[in-house]
Amino acid sequence: MKYIDIHTHGGLGVNFNTSEHNEIKMLLKELYKRNIVAICPTLVGDSIQNLKKRFELFRELKNNQEPNESKIIGLHLEGTFLNPNKPGIQDKSVFMEPTVENFKLLALEYLDIIKIVTFAPELDKDNSFAEFLNKNNIKAQAGHTQANNKGGAIATTHHFNAMPNISHRGENLALDCLFDDDIYSEIICDTIHVSKNMLRLFFTVKNPSKIIMISDSLPAAHCNSEIIFCGKKINKNGKDENGTLAGSVMFLDEIAKLAVKKGIISKQNIEKYTYYNQIEYLNLNEREF
């Protein structure tokens, strides 16, 4: 059983936004032992200066990987271009409007290391931001948003979370993308971020070929002490002092097994949702894993 996690912030106390080279190498080795063969290290919002330092570090790590490490596919930027009214745990003071100009200011020289960008489609007025990303082989994902439609996005980030709630009246992003057979959707199946019955609904309605199970794992995953994430203290349960969910405290292999145990997915579909769909979505070569 192999897994690819396209949305993870770290684990074992390792924070992809702040940890050093050797700490990240250690985590990559531990993930590989779990058959998590590849990941998109996910960065939350930060200053332009700090993010560029991260881009440099992960470029160096990606170019010098060892056989016993989870492979770095590319970075997932889940910060900077979000709606400040849907920040989740993140610091909205570092958010920027999703424009081509702002993206170039942040990351023009790092197109090779960035694979996914989460953004708020309603702030991308003419879809030019999403179009620029997609033309440069970067996946534009809708998340941390108040949008009622996907705009130029081709996927949703942690579906249901940090987006408008589904209602039996009207249309919105979460509902529309359930029935959109062309759009991929990330989903966290720890039964904390999304309830068991809502997960059952999701897996019943959503096109099976477009489901991407993720961990959204925090540095707190398998860490015996509270950690600092987005400048806030996060408890071992993945919540801050106010009870706001920051992410999960499980790795993808554990979440997949939990979903099977709770009857949310069947065992024979695990690799489809945690490996093969990811390969298709990111246009990866399976022989590399």
TrEMBL record:
Signal peptide feature range: none
Matching InterPro entries: Metal_Hydrolase (IPR032466)
Molecular-function GO terms, alphabetical: N-acetylglucosamine-6-phosphate deacetylase activity
Record's keyword terms, sorted: Hydrolase
Biological process (GO), any one: N-acetylglucosamine catabolic process
Gene3D superfamilies: Metal-dependent hydrolases (3.20.20.140)
Alphabetical list of SUPFAM superfamilies matching this protein: Metallo-dependent hydrolases
Family (UniProt): Belongs to the metallo-dependent hydrolases superfamily. NagA family.
Name assigned to this protein: N-acetylglucosamine-6-phosphate deacetylase
Taxonomic classification: Bacteria, Candidatus Galligastranaerophilus
